[in-house]
Amino acid sequence: MTTVELTRFRVLPEKTDELLAARPEMLKDFEADRAGFLGARLVRLPDNEWLDIVEWATPEAFAESREKGPNQPGIARFFAAIDSLVVAEEGVLAE
To answer: Which residues, by range, are in coiled-coil regions (predicted)?
Structure first.
Protein backbone atom coordinates (compact mmCIF):
# COMPACT_ATOMS: atom_id res chain seq x y z
CA MET A 1 0.00 0.00 0.00
CA THR A 2 1.10 3.55 -0.73
CA THR A 3 2.46 5.49 2.25
CA VAL A 4 1.39 9.12 2.45
CA GLU A 5 3.40 11.82 4.18
CA LEU A 6 1.36 14.83 5.30
CA THR A 7 3.42 17.83 6.38
CA ARG A 8 1.77 21.09 7.38
CA PHE A 9 4.06 24.08 7.77
CA ARG A 10 4.16 27.89 7.86
CA VAL A 11 5.93 30.16 5.42
CA LEU A 12 6.42 33.87 6.04
CA PRO A 13 4.72 35.94 3.33
CA GLU A 14 8.05 37.34 2.14
CA LYS A 15 9.36 33.77 1.61
CA THR A 16 6.40 32.51 -0.47
CA ASP A 17 8.02 33.27 -3.82
CA GLU A 18 11.23 31.57 -2.66
CA LEU A 19 9.29 28.45 -1.64
CA LEU A 20 7.45 28.24 -4.95
CA ALA A 21 10.62 28.87 -6.97
CA ALA A 22 12.41 26.07 -5.10
CA ARG A 23 9.63 23.52 -5.55
CA PRO A 24 10.46 22.23 -9.07
CA GLU A 25 14.12 21.68 -8.18
CA MET A 26 13.13 19.97 -4.92
CA LEU A 27 10.88 17.56 -6.81
CA LYS A 28 13.68 16.80 -9.31
CA ASP A 29 16.04 16.09 -6.41
CA PHE A 30 13.47 13.79 -4.81
CA GLU A 31 13.00 11.91 -8.09
CA ALA A 32 16.77 11.48 -8.51
CA ASP A 33 17.72 10.76 -4.89
CA ARG A 34 14.73 9.17 -3.16
CA ALA A 35 13.93 5.53 -3.94
CA GLY A 36 10.19 4.92 -3.72
CA PHE A 37 9.16 8.56 -4.25
CA LEU A 38 5.90 8.53 -6.22
CA GLY A 39 4.89 12.18 -6.32
CA ALA A 40 3.83 15.21 -4.31
CA ARG A 41 1.20 17.91 -4.16
CA LEU A 42 1.55 21.25 -2.44
CA VAL A 43 -1.58 22.91 -1.06
CA ARG A 44 -1.77 26.53 0.03
CA LEU A 45 -3.92 27.01 3.12
CA PRO A 46 -5.10 30.15 4.94
CA ASP A 47 -2.88 32.05 7.38
CA ASN A 48 0.46 31.41 5.64
CA GLU A 49 0.17 27.66 6.09
CA TRP A 50 0.89 24.98 3.50
CA LEU A 51 0.24 21.24 3.28
CA ASP A 52 2.67 19.00 1.42
CA ILE A 53 1.18 15.63 0.44
CA VAL A 54 3.90 13.20 -0.60
CA GLU A 55 3.35 9.62 -1.75
CA TRP A 56 5.86 6.84 -1.17
CA ALA A 57 5.89 3.26 -2.45
CA THR A 58 6.54 1.88 1.05
CA PRO A 59 6.91 3.08 4.64
CA GLU A 60 10.58 2.09 4.39
CA ALA A 61 11.09 4.45 1.43
CA PHE A 62 9.58 7.27 3.47
CA ALA A 63 11.78 6.44 6.47
CA GLU A 64 14.90 6.41 4.29
CA SER A 65 13.96 9.81 2.87
CA ARG A 66 13.55 11.27 6.37
CA GLU A 67 17.01 10.00 7.29
CA LYS A 68 18.54 11.77 4.28
CA GLY A 69 17.00 15.11 5.17
CA PRO A 70 17.89 18.11 2.98
CA ASN A 71 20.93 16.41 1.39
CA GLN A 72 20.41 17.88 -2.10
CA PRO A 73 20.52 21.58 -3.08
CA GLY A 74 16.91 21.81 -4.27
CA ILE A 75 15.59 20.09 -1.17
CA ALA A 76 17.69 22.32 1.10
CA ARG A 77 16.48 25.45 -0.72
CA PHE A 78 12.83 24.43 -0.30
CA PHE A 79 13.27 23.56 3.38
CA ALA A 80 15.08 26.88 4.01
CA ALA A 81 11.97 28.80 2.94
CA ILE A 82 9.87 27.14 5.67
CA ASP A 83 9.42 29.17 8.84
CA SER A 84 7.98 26.49 11.13
CA LEU A 85 6.53 23.00 11.18
CA VAL A 86 2.90 22.70 12.29
CA VAL A 87 2.50 18.91 12.12
CA ALA A 88 3.90 15.93 10.25
CA GLU A 89 1.94 12.71 9.90
CA GLU A 90 2.19 9.42 8.05
CA GLY A 91 -0.68 7.35 6.76
CA VAL A 92 -1.67 4.75 4.20
CA LEU A 93 -3.60 5.63 1.06
CA ALA A 94 -7.06 4.07 1.22
CA GLU A 95 -7.90 3.25 -2.39
So the answer is: none
Which domains, and CATH codes, for the chain? Answer: 3-92 (3.30.70.100)
Which is it for the CA torsion 29, 35, 38, 44, positive or negative?
negative
Burial of 56 (0-12, 13-18, 19+ CB in 10 A): buried
| Rounded-to-integer distance, Cα 18 and Cα 81, Å | 6
pLDDT in tens, 51-93: 999 999 999 999 999 999 999 999 999 999 999 999 999 999 9
